Amino acid sequence: MDYNFSQTEINIEQGTLAITLPSFDFDNFPAVAKALLQRLDAILIEQEPSADLHQWLIDFEGCQLLLKAEYYSASIWLELLILNDIEHLIFIQQLLSHY
User: Fold this and answer.
1) What is the DSSP annotation of 44-99?
2) For position 75, which CATH number holds?
3) In a structure prediction context, what are the per-residue pLDDT tens digits for the chain, which is 99 residues long?
4) Does the predicted model carry a pTM greater than 0.90?
5) Which structural domain range is residue 57 located in?
6) What InterPro entries does the annotation carry (predicted)?
């Protein structure tokens, strides 16, 4: 399935990038996450699923981020582990906006 990841909102202070997917279903997170990783050419390092929060540790060009999805808010976002890596998050937002 082809997902549209172009609707994003960055929070510089928190180091997060929210991704709006109109038809996001928490139960389909693994498929959505794999498509996003492929789009970014990022690598999955570790995954931690739970009943209401998925959390994947990923590597994007040497920058480690958390890819998270929450059941209750039906939201998905990227979160920096190191706030000084904000330029990577800005680049990801620009990259996703071109699809």
Assistant:
1) EEEEE--SSEEEEEEEETTEEEEEEEETTTTEEEEEESSGGGHHHHHHHHHHHHT-
2) 3.30.160
3) 688 999 999 999 999 999 998 888 888 999 999 999 999 999 999 999 788 999 999 999 999 999 999 998 889 999 999 999 999 999 999 999 986
4) yes
5) 8-97
6) DUF3630
